[in-house]
Amino acid sequence: MRYTPFSYQERYGLRLQRLALDGGFSCPNRDGTACTGGCTFCDNRAFHPSYTQGKGITHQIEAGMAFHAERGRRADGYLAYFQAYSGTYAPLEVLRARYEEALAHPAVKGIVIGTRPDCVDAGKLDYLAELKRQGNIVEVEYGIESVYDATLERVNRGHTFACTKEAIVETARRGIPVGGHIIIGLPGETREMILEEASVLNSLPVSSLKIHQLQILKGTAIETEFAERPADFLRLGPEAYIGFLADFLERLRPDIAIGRIVSSVPPSFTDAPWGLLRQEELWKRLEKRLEERNTHQGDLAK
Length: 302
Ligand code: SF4
Known about the structure:
This protein is α/β, with parallel strands linked by helices. Helix content is 36%, strand content 15%. The two termini are 21 Å apart. Bound molecules: iron/sulfur cluster. Iron/sulfur cluster (SF4) binds next to loops. Iron/sulfur cluster binds at residues 27, 29-30, 38-39, 42, 44, 85-86, 116, 143.
């Protein structure tokens, strides 16, 4: 392959299925601790699979396993994925209770935690490192979104890129694999700026990356901003987006495994200019585009 796809099988030798859970955590960017109102692009309702709503961790795990089994997805084990809001945003005792309830389930091999970089500290990271030493799979994914402070401010992110860097470095230093998430097309970012993000990420101990196009969700602040200043947004159709991804991956370190390249939420949440896109189809088109160019991930990495 011409890019490095993320694979648990490759990393752990097991076919692992993630179960998206709601640990009941909030977000400091919504409750007033960092900001109020949340990131301008966020409507967290769009990202909750139905089996996570309003139930305890063990119940959610059972429901998630049944959900995947019904769709014929077999697995050697499961990873509890604390995805909703900020998965480390609670006192350590609460995190302990949630994570350890998940790890106590016999089918669960580990935890994956999606969170904000300003929601970790040394105590929480030491605890996660301890869980890993005990033989559990532990991974953390940070919402990076952008490496530019001006953008982070404009989307009301509530933290700086220096904060992101520190969280990534401190997590990786404890031997925990770090994933990142970035958004292509945030307001004020040009094509060149986004391509330059690849070199910034190359300088950090990130082992995987999810890349999403900006989706303008109905009812969000960014919907209004886009209506008022569309020229500030790099909007790409699917074909142009594939070409842009090829440009981006050519600049990205080849050992950074790519987890996703597109985000798709239910049509009721978005203006859906692309319709509902299938990851598999885009992966194929990306591979084809790199083949046509005869390039690979990392060929232009600095
Ligand atoms: S940090 Fe996440 S959950 Fe919180 S407002 Fe931003 S996108 Fe939404």
